[in-house]
Design brief:
46% helix; Nucleotidyltransferase, domain 5; globular; alpha/beta
Length: 248
């Protein structure tokens, strides 16, 4: 019997997947990625259980840095208008510290499209030195929430209350940026906004490598302060060992 002509289709042996099963690091990476895709849904579930249509969250970036502004972000979500598509788009939403810079940049425009309102409030180093960090932080968070809130909004803040916000209800959420979608979204907005500012400041104030550490205390940053002193972006009220070595 003559052999059948070739069909162009792979044989059964050729159709089998030759790639080995995932093991070790690859399997753990895949598991982490799957968990990250589910965090946003969990955070939105928390916000929905609070029983309000409008939920605003606020968080700050740069509170513990040696240089640069303190940046507060606030985000308002209309939970009645958020559908499956929007929640899925923010499936990786989480505390900004849990994301790489690249992941935060990917989430930022999605937050901007999904939120009803977004506000960013900045406080300069001199203002922090004059008023004190804690008072400045509370005022910036409160101002950011006032800019996004509408009547009936529930205002959520990471960790502590920020004082009266008009006649709006306010709740402090422990580990809020890893618990509430609104606070996590605000943390993304604040962190991305501040990092972009510090990258621009790197070109204006060369030598301190602000693009690398965005103003936080690292060995390289402290060495730069010892080597060339402080810049206009440094907070002089901070007790830093790098400052103590200078005649300031």
């Amino acid at each position: 019997m003559a052999p059948l002509p070739p069909t162009g289709l792979p044989s059964a042996s050729e159709r089998s997947d030759p790639s080995p099963p995932l093991t070790g690091k690859a399997l753990r990476r895949q598991s982490r990625a799957a968990k990250q895709r589910r965090t946003g849904r969990r955070l939105f579930q928390f916000d929905r259980k609070l029983g309000h249509r409008f939920v605003a969250g606020a968080d700050e970036a740069g509170r513990g840095s040696l240089a640069g502004p303190l940046v507060a972000g606030a985000v308002l979500f209309d939970l009645e208008r958020l559908g499956v598509r929007e929640v899925r788009a923010l499936g990786a939403l989480n505390d900004s510290k849990q994301h790489s810079a690249e992941a935060r940049e990917e989430l930022y425009p999605i937050v901007m499209r999904t939120a009803v309102k977004v506000a960013v409030v900045t406080r300069c180093p001199q203002g922090i030195d004059d008023r004190g960090l804690h008072k400045t932080n509370l005022a910036a968070l409160r101002d950011a929430l006032l800019r996004v809130a509408c009547p009936g909004t529930l205002c959520l803040v990471d960790g502590f209350r920020v004082g009266a916000i008009a006649d709006l209800e306010q709740r402090a959420i422990v580990d809020g940026d890893a618990t509430s979608a609104a606070i996590a979204a605000a943390s993304i907005v604040a962190k991305v906004s501040r990092d972009r500012y510090m990258h621009r400041a790197d070109a204006l104030h060369p030598g301190w490598e602000f693009a690398a550490h965005v103003g936080y205390s690292t060995p390289e940053h402290r060495d730069a302060i010892v080597r060339q002193g402080v810049s206009p972006l440094h907070r002089m009220s901070f007790a830093s060992t790098a400052y103590q070595q200078l005649a300031l």
